[in-house]
Amino acid sequence: QKEVEQDPGPLSVPEGAIVSLNCTYSNSAFQYFMWYRQYSRKGPELLMYTYSSGNKEDGRFTAQVDKSSKYISLFIRDSQPSDSATYLCAMSGGYSSASKIIFGSGTRLSIRP
Amino acid sequence: GAVVSQHPSRVICKSGTSVKIECRSLDFQATTMFWYRQFPKKSLMLMATSNEGSKATYEQGVEKDKFLINHASLTLSTLTVTSAHPEDSSFYICSARDPRNVLTFGAGSRLTVL
């Protein structure tokens, strides 16, 4: 079993829809949770990061962490064609540089105009 | 915000030559940097962890002599692909843990070996 599972998609939704992206994980020691967006042929860019459980909102993006279920989500409201990209979840167990950051495989998202 | 600069963004070389890719943290110090490789439509594959002032830690299956990593200062790590072959053609991305404890990535370097 992989430490982090993420549906690779592709996921295609119409413009304006609410998008839900999810990851599950098996390591209960994970405490830091991140979402990255990667456009084709570019490096990933950090969208959201959260520590422990709870919700965090930034504009059209909301990140949720449910540690009891080992489940994290990223919601995108009022989706735009410019949101079309691959979204990667990532997580880590600690603050030190020795703590590895584990990535999901990424979900390819396409927003149809 | 934290910025990681990676250079060159694209490089084409002949088979058998060596190529160096630089990764710099511009506004923070990074004792640890990470090098990833990514194939088309695939996720990131961690190659090695670069440690300032000490040897890099390579992931299983990554050839140390093929992919030389040097982390000479707190803001610079380099990846040298030695005696490159067409199968080394790929997208290489570096990252560094910034003061928020999250990874900030460079823009990536696309290597094409002819």
Total strands of chain B? 11
How much helix, percentage-wise, in residues of chain B?
A: under 10%
Question: Describe the biggest sheet of chain B?
Answer: 7 strands, mixed
Low-confidence stretches of chain B: none
Mean pLDDT of chain A: 91
Major interchain interface with per-chain residue totals: A-B, 22 and 24 residues
Estimated structural class of chain B:
mainly beta
Write down how many β-strands of chain A occur, each being a DSSP E stretch of 2 or more residues: 11
What is the oligomeric state here?
heterodimer
Strand content of chain B: over 45%
Figure out the total of helices of chain A: 0
Overall geometry of chain B comes to globular
Based on Cα principal axes, name the global outline of chain A.
Answer: globular
Proportion in β-strands of chain A: over 45%
